[in-house]
Design goal:
- The chain is an alpha/beta fold.
- It has one domain (2-187): 3-Layer(aba) Sandwich (Rossmann fold).
- Helices cover 39% and strands 20% of the residues.
- The protein has 7 helices and 7 strands, in the order βαβββααββαβααα.
- It has helices at residues 21-33, 69-80, 85-88, 115-124, 145-149, 155-178, 180-187; strands at residues 2-6, 38-40, 45-52, 55-62, 89-95, 103-106, 131-135.
- It has a 7-stranded mixed beta sheet with strand order 2-3-4-1-5-7-6, sandwiched between helices.
- A hairpin with a 4-residue loop joins strand 2 and strand 3 (45-52).
Length: 197
């Protein structure tokens, strides 16, 4: 079984923010594959399981708040008895250092300042699991990065968001079905989703 985790913050005040890109991708995967996400107390979030491209998968949105995402992931990974976290866990999160609309798949590595990912790595004691970074771009000069990630997408980004989420869901499916290396070859070289002016 595979576990796909989208990072974000719970609550209506955060629902449309850039920091919830991971939640948005998980919701798109759930919609595509008819997987119902329901509150799961054991995993401290919303969880559902089903098949994605013939692969048994669980979808998880941790509701521990971003900086404590590892609590939910550790609980789910332990109970679902994943075989090898290096291939059976995929984490999706927003990334300031990628232009809006760019995707970047990595087989492992550091957290790069992403506190939710850092908490997952600390609690699991490893960092060699695949992740999908969803580019949200840098804030305009003078704008606080924290305020930027916790603000809603602007009008141009909102218009492009369906295409971005569609491509991000494609990327996760490719990781699950074809493996990380082939997914990287397919999606890392692609350009960013175009913003409407």
């Amino acid at each position: 079984m595979k576990l796909v985790v989208g990072l974000g913050n719970p609550g209506p005040e955060y629902a449309e923010t850039r920091h919830n890109a991971g939640f948005h991708v998980v919701a798109e995967l759930a919609r595509r594959h008819g997987i119902a996400l329901a509150r799961e107390r054991r995993f401290q979030g919303r969880f559902g399981r089903g098949r994605i491209g013939g692969v048994e998968a669980g979808l998880l949105e941790p509701h521990t708040f971003m900086n404590l995402s590892g609590k939910a992931v550790l609980a789910a990974a332990g109970e679902l008895r994943l075989g090898d976290l290096g291939s059976d866990l995929v984490v999706i999160y927003d990334d300031l250092d990628l232009p809006f609309g760019r995707l970047r798949i990595r087989p492992g590595g550091g957290a790069g300042g992403q506190k939710g990912l850092a908490d997952i790595q600390a609690r699991l004691g490893r960092s060699d699991f695949p992740r999908l970074r969803v580019g949200i771009g840098r804030p305009p000069a003078g704008e606080d990065p924290v305020e930027y990630v916790l603000a809603p997408f602007d009008a141009g980004q909102r218009a492009a968001l369906p295409e971005l989420l569609d491509r991000a869901a494609d990327a996760v499916e490719a990781i699950l079905v074809d493996g990380v290396q082939r997914a990287m070859n397919r999606f890392n070289a692609g350009g960013a989703v175009a913003l409407e002016n």
